[in-house]
Amino acid sequence: MTRQNKTSHISARMRRPRTSGDDSSWAFVVLPKEASATLPRRGRTTIDGTINGAAFRALLEPDGQKSHWLRIDKELLQTAGVDFGDDACFEVTPVDREPEPEVPADLDVALVASPESRAIWDSATTIARLDWIHWITSAKQEKTRTKRVNDACDMLAAGKKRVCCFDPSGFYSKAFSPPETAD
To answer: What is the pTM of this model?
Structure first.
């Protein structure tokens, strides 16, 4: 499928997550597959967008169904004048260049302790670094995350610039999905 890297215009309903962690004031939407098809990748992707004209930049998450979902914080909900259950008009445009991802503290400490790993990390592409981070942060248990940090450093030190055997879309592994909707 050819991705066109253009602006998509969609309408979507603001959903309330069933469980929202510490902050219960955020919403989410799942993009239609047609809108996701215009994006450069099925994994995490940064977009510029608007909700009812309110501009934002966000990192879309894969939904495991060849689409993406978007977390919308309380401030953006207020700026856009929308609430849970409301329909909103969105414009979604992929960024021209993926921004550098924030390196999680545990991975950064491990990379500092391994100059060989750091050298390969620094020479990898932004997308490759984004996939490494996604692989590590998608671990559901702390023990798994710690193992992935250690494995990442071992693989990087061995010269691997990309995490192997990781499906960043979650489609084949069913590893990713949007939050469950509250009623």
So the answer is: 0.85
